[in-house]
Amino acid sequence: MRKPQTGKSLVPETVAASYLGTKVQTLRNWRHIGLGPDYVRLNGRMIRYDVADLDRYVESLKVSHSCPGQGDDAGEGFLSDAPSHSVALVPIKQGSRERAPCSSGP
């Protein structure tokens, strides 16, 4: 979705929901349970989202698809750049419900 084009950095929840590809009710649910992007409450009732906060939220959801320290990123600061909540996805055997561990080396 395109970044909201406004003269201000605060956008209403309808624009924020569209930008995130979700419904307004989903944003409301997230606020209620303490999830989702940061928001601003104006006049006690009006909800606005800062576009920079929406971008930071999306960036925080990125997931790595390789084991740390392996592949093209090995030795180039991959471990120091990875957020602590990233998940490495690896192939698993057919019929297995367990995640295969990353190999520790050659």
Structure description:
The protein is an alpha+beta fold. The chain has a domain of 51 residues. It has four helices and three strands. Strands 1-3-2 form a three-stranded antiparallel β-sheet. A hairpin with a 3-residue loop joins strand 2 and strand 3. The radius of gyration is 19 Å and the shape is elongated. The protein starts with 9 loop residues before the first strand and ends in a 25-residue tail after the last helix.
Query: What integer is the average pLDDT?
Result: 76
Low-confidence stretches: none
Helix content: 25-40%
Beta fraction of the residues? Answer: 5-15%
User: What's the gyration radius in Å?
Assistant: 19 Å
Structural class: alpha+beta
Shape call: elongated
Largest sheet: 3 strands, antiparallel
Spell the H/E element sequence.
EHHEEHH
User: Main sheet: which strands, in order across?
Assistant: 1-3-2
Write down how many β-strands occur, each being a DSSP E stretch of 2 or more residues.
3
Q: What is the count of DSSP helices, taking H or I runs of 4+ residues?
A: 4
Please report the distance between the alpha carbons of the first and last residues. Answer: 41 Å
